[in-house]
Amino acid sequence: MKRIYILLFLFLFLILEGVAIKFLPPSILLGDQMFVPHWILIVLILVEMFFDRGQSYNAILYAFIFGLLIDIVYTGILGVYMFSYGIVIYIVHVSKRFLHGNFFVTFLFSIFGLVLCDLLITFIYSLVGVIHLSWEHYWLNRLLPTVFLNIIFFLLMYFLLVKRFIKWGSELNWD
């Protein structure tokens, strides 16, 4: 039942990602900055850090499923988000074995995951010719605003969801 709750949270954030930019003040949106919400990725990192145990791969499975859903609903090319989210969550899964899951480590994983994911997405879209950005323009007008927006979301979700994920993860029988 706990896994269904996580799926419902992820589905809710899938819907909210599409309308998130509309809630920003118009003065922010008039500039050249491009804000890309990666809320599902942030929640998946929290699930990986605090819900999954060493031999469970729920977050990786959810990353592929919801990455594909993002590709279907919001983009024109299938597999870009699925691949990017899957790779990032797998790296977090492998790396968390060496580090203790606390706020600081999760914060660093979130920043690293956001940067890596957005770089992968932009690289793939540039490779197939969907977008044409100079890297200087990309760093200043897309990557930094995207990371800033998603870090604010991370701070909100960390304090709202982590205790719940820890509790749900400890209640499950992982054997």
Number of E-type strands? 0
- With helices defined by DSSP (H or I, 4 residues minimum), what is the helix count? 7
Describe the global form: globular
Based on CA atoms alone, the radius of gyration comes out at 16 Å
Kindly, what is the distance between the CA atoms of the first and last residues, rounded to a whole number of angstroms?
A: 16 Å
Largest beta-sheet details: none
Helix content: over 70%
Give me the strand/helix succession. Answer: HHHHHHH
Helix/strand structural class: mainly alpha
Write the SSE topology:
Elements lengths: L1 H18 L6 H4 L9 H12 L7 H17 L5 H16 L7 H25 L7 H37 L4
Provide a descriptive summary of the structure in words.
- The chain is mainly α and 175 residues long.
- The chain has a domain at 58-167.
- Helix content is 74%, strand content 0%.
- The chain is built from seven helices and no strands.
- It has helices at 2-19, 26-29, 39-50, 58-74, 80-95, 103-127, 135-171.
- α1 (2-19) runs parallel beside α4, α5 (80-95) runs antiparallel to α6 and α6 (103-127) packs across α7 (135-171).
- The chain is globular and about 45 Å long.
- The relative contact order is 0.16.
- The mean pLDDT is 89.
Descriptors for this entry?
single chain; globular; mainly alpha; 175 residues
Outline:
This protein has seven helices and no strands.
